[in-house]
Amino acid sequence: MNEQPQNAARLLPWAGVEGRPCYVAGDGDGQVSRTADRVEAMQLGMAYELLDHADDMVKDDRSTAVQLRHVAAALAHSLRDVHRVARSRGLRLGIPDAFEPGHPSGPGLVRLRP
Q: Is the dihedral of CA 19, 24, 29, 32 positive or negative?
């Protein structure tokens, strides 16, 4: 697969002002990209732990509706994070982005002027 072109920006694993997507251009192996890699690893680890917690709650007959709604909200938030990580990594591998610019997590691959 092709790697991300030099004139493209990386979708970062956090949101910016008003929840809009954040990008870094030309950072490659720089400080922002290393920080993004650490945040992605943390988000994926937290998602894994949350899945275990959700499994336990679903199996427990004593879990209340409020508790289950709370874990469902946490799972939805975590899934958004994991989805953004997957999109960012796929784009860096050259996998085309099928999402429109109006997608909630924003356009995946932003081409900069040469």
A: negative
Lowest mean pLDDT, pick from 14-28, 65-79, 96-110: 96-110
Residue in the structure block whose two tokens are 């694993």:
13
Round to whole Å and give the CA distance between 59 and 77.
21
3-state SS string for the chain: CCCCCCCEEEEEEEECHHHCEEEEECCCCCHHHHHHHHHHHHHHHHHHHHHHHHHHHHHCCCCCHHHHHHHHHHHHHHHHHHHHHHHHHHHHCCCCCCCCCCCCCCCCCEECCC
From CA 8, how far away is CA 18, in angstroms rounded?
A: 23
Name the phi and psi angles at 9, rounded to 5. -105, 145
Confidence at residue 63, expressed as pLDDT on a 0 to 100 scale: 97
